[in-house]
Amino acid sequence: MPGLGKITSAGLVAAMPELGQVSDNVAAALLEVAPYDDDSGQRRCDRHIQGGRRKIRNLFYMACLGAATRQGLR
Length: 74
Known about the structure:
- Helix content is 46%, strand content 0%.
- The longest helix has 16 residues, at 54-69.
- The chain is an all-alpha fold.
């Protein structure tokens, strides 16, 4: 995939060894991009992200930012 280079791929494999063995929902939770609700009884609150592995999320964010801003990418 354009924008995801060798460093990003190596970082994801090193920091998330279970990446190929878990479901998409579990991988999103580990990457800290899955929204969780904060509801209790009648109370309904906003969804937010929590937990996960911050270093992996930052690594992936920088790769996605670079891919999104790359000239000529369509």
